[in-house]
Write a structure and sequence with these properties.
Elements (H helix, E strand, L loop, with lengths): L2 E2 L1 H15 L3 E5 L3 H4 L2 H6 L4 E3 L4 H13 L3 E7 H7 L1 H10 L5 E5 L17 H6 L5 E3 L4 H13 L4 E4 L5 E2 L14 E4 L4 E5 L3 H13 L5 E5 L2 E3 L3 H8 L3 E9 L4 H12 L3 E7 L9 H7 L4 H13 L1
């Protein structure tokens, strides 16, 4: 199976789009290497703004560009744009309803050995609580490319979180997606897994492992966290047990969103599988995932434990 980085899929597509649309700008915070914006900066220097290590300024500058009728994409580490720039995202972008797209790269624990200062594990909780801000966690490069087309055409402010390393392709090239609609990737009546971002591929592998044990599980790719696909959540709840999986704190992320909906509309047994409320173990993404049971083996264990509880 082929593997690609989501940041690479984004920068390749945004360069293609920006060559056709001079209103598209990208901004970086000494992060063109991290985001892979090097080719864009070389080929379209007049549509690129280097802000240095100043994420708050970058968001403010992007809001100013949007107010002038341009279509800015401000790009850099998700950990800094979600926490250091929270006030600017809230006020300059969302409250002012500026057409700014924030592309947070190296989200979750993908900065690996750099540790907790560079982990972005509260970003979804924060961003989904800000009115007027769409929130996305694409799961593979095909989806990221399609989402980039949507973002370039949309006038809504948005936050997109992607990882750093290459991930396995889930979708065939050219697959289309609808914002606000989860993708059902597997069908099963015994339980349902709702995942987002890089956990989707692992959820699919866990579902296959469980199928070999005669446990049939539905798998949903909830790539749009806001707006949330409540119909898909209700459908998942029909199985009687829902497991959410995310590279995020167990508080306030995908699991929180699903629990909020189910508790108020369709009470269902569920389990939130994510990163616990502690100082995180430091290592590569795969090591951290395995340590906290976010790999396919851990997901399968959590689902079986939930069914047997």
């Amino acid at each position: 199976m082929s593997m690609s980085t989501l940041r690479g899929a984004f920068t390749q597509r945004i360069l293609e789009l920006a060559k056709e649309d001079k209103s598209i700008f990208t901004l970086a915070t000494d992060s063109r290497g991290s985001v892979t914006l090097g080719d864009y900066a070389k080929q379209l220097p007049e549509q690129f703004v280097e802000c240095g290590i100043a994420e708050q300024d970058a968001v403010g500058i992007a809001a100013g560009l949007a107010d002038a009728g341009l279509r800015p994409f401000v790009c850099g580490p998700a950990c800094f744009f979600s926490m250091r720039s929270a006030e600017q995202v809230k006020v300059d972008v969302a409250y002012s309803h500026m057409n700014v797209k924030i592309i947070g790269v190296s989200g979750g624990v993908s900065y690996g050995a750099l540790g907790s200062t560079h982990h972005s594990t509260q970003d979804i909780a924060l961003m989904r609580a800000i009115p007027s801000l769409e929130v996305f966690l694409p799961s593979d490069a095909v989806q990221m490319r399609c989402l980039t087309d949507y973002l370039a055409a949309s006038n809504e402010p948005a936050f997109v979180r992607v990882g750093r390393g290459a991930v396995e392709d889930i979708y065939a090239p050219g697959t289309s997606f609808t914002v606000g609609k989860a993708v059902k990737l597997a069908e099963g009546k015994d339980a349902a897994i709702i995942a987002a971002g890089e956990t989707v591929c692992r959820a699919l592998k866990a579902a296959q492992m469980l199928k070999n044990e005669s446990i049939n599980v539905s798998v949903y790719d909830m790539f749009t966290i806001k707006p949330l696909d409540c119909e898909a959540i209700s459908e998942a709840a029909e199985t009687g047990f829902v497991l959410t999986v995310e590279e995020h704190s167990i508080y306030g992320g995908l699991g929180g969103a699903v629990a909020e909906y189910l508790s108020q509309n369709k009470p269902t047994r569920m389990k939130i599988l994510g990163l616990p409320d502690e100082k995180y173990y430091t290592g590569t993404s795969n090591e951290v995932f395995a340590h906290y049971g976010l790999d396919e083996n851990g997901i399968a264990r959590a689902l079986k434990a939930g069914l047997n509880a």
